[in-house]
Sequence to fold (118 residues):
Amino acid sequence: MAGPLTLSLVDPQDRRAMAEVHALWARLYRDDPAWVPPLAEWLRRRLAPSNSFFRQAELRLFLARRGSQDVGSISALRDHQHEQHRGEAAAFFGFFETQDDPAVAALLLERAADEARG
Fold:
């Protein structure tokens, strides 16, 4: 594939952007008979700022793109209640989906690590 790898921050409330994330996942797993796509509305509500979990947590979602094609996603999460309860600074990552490309995986994981360090 041609083009440089880029990352963009995705607003989980932006339905168009989330449709791109869902389309990426569907393309990545279209040949996997065990894959069940997440329900778009359920995911939107789960990631909504009105979700009480986000009173004490921050989530950032990123989409990797090479040229004009989406090639991966990742989220970075800081849960301040977890940090307070455990007495440790910790970050978590999720929504990590990528085509079979070590460069894409490395870029996404490094971005999540940068968020954790921040």
Summary: Residues 71 and 100 are 9 Å apart (CA to CA).
